[in-house]
């Protein structure tokens, strides 16, 4: 599928939003530093989304930068009613994973899975998992901004990202960003309306965190160990040298593992979402 020009995006997105419960207003920019800032500074109301043909200074969680790869990726921010941030992050992670799977061949979809709390990774033969998409949720008084970045059309990544990032195109996906963006609108709308039980079940089917060796910043200090169980809303059960610990989601933050400690993401046995610097 060929990339459709930016000029057709507004009409296509407005038609898609007309069939949703949560989104009604669309803003498409040719270029912006950050869709999060565009939504915030523009004072866009709940029910809006803002996207751009190019995002030049995007950011991820914990202040990490989102590398500018021109017009090869998706950058979009959804403005929703402020609510529990863990639930919003879980809904966004499920939606981006499902939209990404909608955009790749069926036999490749199982390679895509979630790393707690909201990174979309792709299993990579003979290598560590590679990041395909990320989510950033920020609260603004009565609003919450859900920022999502997805690598779509990149053919390769340079420098330190060469073995850390991947795109949907690199695993055989469609090259039309609008296709994936429309799928994301629909999937996020459904996820935001889902019951907590349904959302947690969907996240659990997509989760690839269990079995990974990770490091976490907690109120008690740095904790390193193998994740035994992931509860997307409550936290993680981790096996450390000192024994098992439960790390609460609200006070736990992932710290990047050194290269030698990274585990390989394994695809599931059965099929049940700008590049990141994390």
Task: Note the main attributes of this structure.
278 residues, alpha+beta, BirA Bifunctional Protein, domain 2, SH3 type barrels, 2 domains, 7-stranded mixed sheet, 5-stranded antiparallel sheet, 24% helix, 32% strand, globular
SSE map:
Elements (H helix, E strand, L loop, with lengths): L8 H10 L6 E8 L2 H7 L6 E8 L2 E2 L5 E2 L6 E9 L3 H18 L3 H4 L2 E4 L3 E4 L7 E11 L2 E9 L25 H17 L2 H11 L6 E6 L2 E11 L3 E6 L2 E6 L4 E3 L23
Parallel strand pairs: 1-2
Antiparallel strand pairs: 2-5, 3-4, 5-9, 6-7, 7-8, 8-9, 10-11, 10-14, 11-12, 12-13
Average pLDDT metric: 87
- Molecular shape: globular
CATH fold-type name of the largest domain = BirA Bifunctional Protein, domain 2
Q: Which secondary-structure class do the elements indicate?
A: alpha+beta
Strand order of the largest sheet: 1-2-5-9-8-7-6
Parts with pLDDT < 50 across at least 5 consecutive residues: 61-66, 259-278
| The CATH H-level homologous superfamily of the largest domain | Bira Bifunctional Protein, Domain 2
Portion of residues in helices? 10-25%
CATH architectural designation of the largest domain? 2-Layer Sandwich
Integer count of domains: 2
Task: Compute the CA-based radius of gyration.
Answer: 18 Å
What's the order of the H and E elements? HEHEEEEHHEEEEHHEEEEE
> Termini separation (Å)?
31 Å
The count of strands amounts to 14
Report the sheet-strand fraction. 25-35%
Q: Class of the largest domain in CATH?
A: Alpha Beta
